[in-house]
Design goal:
The chain has 214 residues and is an alpha+beta fold. It has a single domain (3-29, 72-212), classed as Histidine kinase-like ATPase, C-terminal domain (Heat Shock Protein 90, 2-Layer Sandwich), CATH 3.30.565. It is 46% helix and 17% strand. It has five helices and five strands, in the order αααβαββαββ. The protein has a five-stranded mixed beta sheet with strand order 1-2-3-5-4, covered by helices on one side. The protein is elongated and about 65 Å long.
Length: 214
């Protein structure tokens, strides 16, 4: 059975698993940082030493990073039981995706730009739009420890019929559109009645994931 022939929901689940494969190491890294700080605090307490202000700052910083990561992951998930005031427009999706990419891209010499354009258009399937965007961007991230140069720009946009995320990835290596995650993104967009456009020009990938508006 091809990806496009899979029953409803399966495309979403396959895309979730693909995205989690990139996000999981970042979660483990941030979790390990928190545990390392906690272990240090315990050692200080056992030795009867007072906690310095610097230790408190480190704890606050690590907790803030974990909160930001978990929050971004939740924002790209299903909209189950979400209050109406937290409407997921295209800008909301772009911000959530940017949050995940910034954490996963840490230490990779990545330049991430979230363009200031705003779009209040509500995607018919905000999760699918977020997952497709991540399936395009995450495989294109440079390896850890790589030299700076890869630049990713995300922009929320819309027209009368659709909400979309426009993606530009400069200084790419190879052809990201040949990655299996890209095919997942294409299949997911087709499943929800959307589309995925892509072209490569002078080493820069220009792509746009779009879904029907509500």
């Amino acid at each position: 059975m091809s990806t496009l022939e899979e029953p409803g929901g399966t495309c979403h689940e396959r895309a979730r698993r693909a995205v989690f494969g990139y996000v999981a190491p970042a979660i483990l890294h941030e979790t390990n940082n928190v545990l390392t700080v906690m272990a240090g605090v315990r050692q200080l307490l056992r030795a009867g030493q007072a906690l310095s202000e610097r230790v408190g700052t480190m704890i606050d910083q690590q907790l803030a990073r974990m909160e930001a990561l978990v929050g971004a992951i939740r924002r790209v998930g299903p909209e189950e039981n979400e209050p109406p005031e937290n409407a997921r427009d295209a800008s909301f999706v772009a911000d959530a995706v940017s949050g995940i990419v910034s954490v996963v891209g840490k230490g990779r010499g990545l330049l991430l730009e979230r363009e200031s354009s705003r779009s209040e258009a509500r995607p018919g399937d905000a999760e699918a739009l977020a997952l497709a965007t991540l399936c395009i961007v995450l495989p294109a991230l440079p390896p850890r420890g790589g030299s700076a140069g890869t630049k990713i720009a995300l922009r929320a946009a819309d027209n009368e019929k659709e909400a979309r995320i426009e993606i530009e990835i400069a200084s790419i290596e190879g052809d990201p559109s040949r990655e299996p995650e890209f095919e997942l993104a294409r299949a997911l967009m087709a499943r929800v009645g959307g589309r995925l456009d892509c072209r490569i020009d002078a080493g820069t990938l220009h792509a746009a994931a779009a879904v029907p508006r509500r």
